[in-house]
Design goal:
CATH architecture of the largest domain: Orthogonal Bundle
Distance between the termini: 24 Å
CATH class of the largest domain: Mainly Alpha
Shape: elongated
Number of helices: 5
CATH superfamily of the largest domain: Winged helix-like DNA-binding domain superfamily/Winged helix DNA-binding domain
Largest sheet: 2 strands, antiparallel
Number of domains: 2
Amino acid sequence: MTTPVEPWFLALVQKYVPEEKQNACIVEYQRVRTKRPLTPRQWEVLEYLRNTIGTQGFAPSFEEIAQRFGFRSLSTVAEHLSNLEAKNWIRRSLNEKRAITLMEE
């Protein structure tokens, strides 16, 4: 069973991906969606990242994430971000502040 492709993703693929690579792009999207599920809290953190990056143009700091979710430790933030990165939802650059890239976009 394959994962349905959201209309917004299909529109992006059709607009920006060369025609000969569109099918491979959709197959990879379905693979990522089905093989790397997120916990409810990971979805919340991901949505917060999406919204913050969308409105500010850059990712929130560890402190801002901790404050938003009531985490007492920055290591909890690091763990959530590491899990999102391991599941290929985000990419982080080492030694750079606020260097979080959303992999789904």
